[in-house]
Amino acid sequence: MTNRVSRIVLTGGPGAGKTTAADLFRREIGDSVVVVPESATTLFAGGFPRIDHDDVQRSIQRAVFEVQASSEEIHRELYPDRVLLCDRGTIDGAAYWPDGTAGFFEAMDTTYEAELARYDVVLFFETSAVGGIAFEGGNRYRTEDNQQAVELDLRLRELWSAHPGYHFIAHESSFLAKLTNALRILGDVVDNGWPPSAESSLPG
Fold it and tell me: Which residues contact 68 (CB under 8 A, 6 or more apart)?
């Protein structure tokens, strides 16, 4: 028995290629999906300050969480018959929260379990930084170096891997091969739903 998929989160460490993947998926799959853009980029592009200070980080992650949740619900209302492809999810902020994971969900007045249940499927893109590949020229609002990207990738992976519809998409030397594998998984879950025990770990 399979479940109909309505909300998929694309996540992973900085420089994983998820935003590029989201655009490719939208082009390849067409009107059956709609992309919910990354909230952090939306905020920073609008002039929201980004400063490495604990109090500022708390304010940033509160804002990102609220924008992400609201944006998902707006897209759900606008496109009730489409699958939402969410460029990051509401859980991601816990990896950036200065006071730890439990503190993040308490501050957001929610629970880890409730936020995990928002999504039917998780496609986790491993950062290219694990292969020592620099990711200049991507998102200009990203400030992490390779070491920081790997550390964030591990924290995010720990947060998301508990989801029953979790799929791990490993870094590959060929980004095209990585996208092809991810598109195969996405096409399968959009067309056929997902088994509760599903997990795909693709070779690097």
Answer: 36, 39, 86, 88, 89, 90, 92
